[in-house]
Structures are given as C-alpha cells and as structure tokens.
Amino acid sequence: MLIEDCEATNKNLYKFYAAVMIIIFILALPLNASVLHLFIFKLKFWKSNTNNVFLFNLVLADILLLFCLPIKAHNYIKGERRSPNDAVCKAMLFMLFLNRGASIAFLTVTSIDRYFNVVHPGRKNLLKALKKSPHISIIIWILLLPLTIPTMLKNFDCCNTDDTDVVDSLREAVFFSQIIIPFFILVYCTVRIVNRLRKKTVGDKTKLKRATFLVMTVMVVFSFCFLPCTLARMVLLIARVQEWPEMYQDKAAVAFDGLMVLSYMDCLLDPMVYCFCSTKFKGLYLSNYFPFLYKDSQVPIESSTGQTRGVWS
TM segments (predicted)? Predict the structure, then answer.
C-alpha cells in the first residue's frame, strides 16, 4: 500500500481517532457557541478597543474548524485516512489550514499585545494603534488565504493531483511556519512577561499571579496541541526522504494522523484558557448560563459607566 493511499491500515485505531474527534466536537461546539454568543450579544466586541476583537476571532476560527471534525470522523470510521473525493478532500484541507492558521495567528497577536501592555505599558506601538480598528482582524484573515494555496495545488495524503517539488516545499513550509514561528514568539513573550511580573512589587498580587498563570498556560496549551504533530510531521518527512521501509512509513503516517487529532483539542482548551482566566468573563458566563453558580462576590462585569470592559485581564 502506498503511504499516500486513503485506506487506513489499522482501522480500529482510526475508529478510536474518530471517537476522540466526536467527543471533542460534542464538548467544544456548545462551549465555543456560548462564548461566541456572549461576545456578540453581551460584550459587543466591535465597540471595544481591547483584545475582545482578537478573542472573538480566535473563538470564531475554532468554531469553524470544529465543523470539519464530523467529516474527518466519518472518513476514519469508514477506514479512510482522508476523503477519496478530490473536491471534498481539498475543501477540508482548505478549511483546516485556514482556520487552524487563524486560531494560531490570533492567539499570537493577542500574546504580543499582552507583552506590550505588561513589559512596555507606556510605549506606543503599531499593534496598539491597529487594534482599535476591526480592520486588522480582516487583514489577518486575508493574509492567511494565500497560505492555503499550496494545499490546493499539491497532493496531501490522498488528494491526488499532479505534483512538483516546488509546491511540495511550499506546502511543508506553510505547515511548519504556522507553528514554529508563533511558538518562538510565544516563548519570547511568555519569558519576558513572567520576568516582568516577578520583578513588579507594586500592585495586586492576586492579579499578578493570575497574569503569570495565564501566560504560562497559553504556552503549555500551545505546546501540548501543536508541537507533537509538528515533530510527527518532521519524522514522516524524514521517513519518506530517506525511503524507510513501507511499514515504518505507514507507522509514521498513523502517528501523524493521531497527533493531528490531538491538535484539535485546541478548540476545546482555547475558551477555557484565554477567556475563563478572566474573572470578568467568568462572571458574565456563569451569570448567563449557570446563574446558580454565580456569586455576587465576583468581579463586576461592567464598569460604572455601563460600558463593557475587555475580558483579557
């Protein structure tokens, strides 16, 4: 069997992958939908000059990515690594690359903004000026579109079309750059933020501890969801270039598919990490969906002027 064939060699294992994706979909869809509802109808994110706009787009990217999971799960249950239909396969790849790229991009932009707010609070920067306009979010989505072109031109697993070395290299460059570059940016921002917060002696210690916990958790979640599949992809490429025995290439492909499933956990973890670490958002969420758990002692959701504040605090 060729490594790029659609048929899975270990059908039971792929059924397990499908079960994991179904569980992620069932848990993450209502969670992301409820968060999206709050951003639109309660927080009115478009009126805010804070990270609400970035967080809204992060949740939007996650919820769009979730709609791909039932189709992938269906293929796995049938014992197919990818859809044998060329159009469906390419459409899935387009959605997966675009929305996962958007999720990583908005996470990275949010972390960079957090870095400037904590490490350089008084310094003017381009991002601070741009985030006052929703156009930066539109620009990010548009810039991500060209990155999906290589997936539409070259066979990726079982999307069979004519291939060239140039397109193959572009595709792999897109895959790795979407994860590796943001990872180093997040590492830098996290280290600088943690060091800055540790040196800060004035201010609410509880807020400082929460901010430190937040940036550390962002780093852990990103590493847990995306680094394993990146390493697996690297091993798979080495196996193909060095022409390992077909059995080992197949095992590398199976491991890569499994770790890609793990990366979809990002859709489930994002709302809990990037939104629920805010006491304001937590209070808003509980008061709307779980009022019996809401406590009056929590941080107020709105300011004294009635305007909704940013949830990234």
Answer: 16-41, 53-73, 93-112, 133-153, 173-191, 212-239
CA distance 92 to 89: 5
Helix (H, G, I), strand (E, B) or coil at 181: helix
- Residue 249 · residue 239 · CB < 8 Å: yes
Yes or no: say if 52 and 309 are a contact pair by the CB < 8 Å rule: no
- On the 0-12 / 13-18 / 19+ scale of CB atoms within 10 A, 156 is buried
Say how far apart CA 271 and CA 277 lie, in whole Å: 9
Distance CA(309)–CA(37), nearest Å, equals 16
What's 46's DSSP letter? G
29: CB partners within 8 A, 6+ apart = 63, 66
Position 132 scores a pLDDT of: 57
Q: Model-level pTM?
A: 0.85
Run means of pLDDT, 10 residues per run, the chain, 313 residues: 63 95 95 90 72 84 92 92 81 85 86 80 63 73 82 55 61 86 91 82 65 79 92 91 88 92 92 72 84 60 42 46
Choose the CATH number for 11-293 among 1.10.10.10, 1.20.200.10, 1.20.1070.10, 3.40.50.300: 1.20.1070.10
Give the three-state DSSP class for 24.
helix
Nearest 5°: the CA angle 221, 264, 81 is: 140
**pLDDT on residue 71:** 92
In the chain, where the domains are located: 11-293
Inter-residue contact 54 to 137 (CB < 8 Å):
yes
Distance in angstroms (rounded) separating the CA atoms of residues 312 and 30: 22
Q: Please write down the long-range contacts of 109-112, taking CB distance under 8 Å and 24 or more positions apart.
A: 109/54, 109/136, 109/140, 110/51, 110/54, 110/55, 110/58, 110/274, 110/312, 111/185, 111/186, 111/189, 111/190, 111/215, 111/218, 112/185, 112/189
Q: How many CB atoms lie within 10 A of CB 30?
A: 11
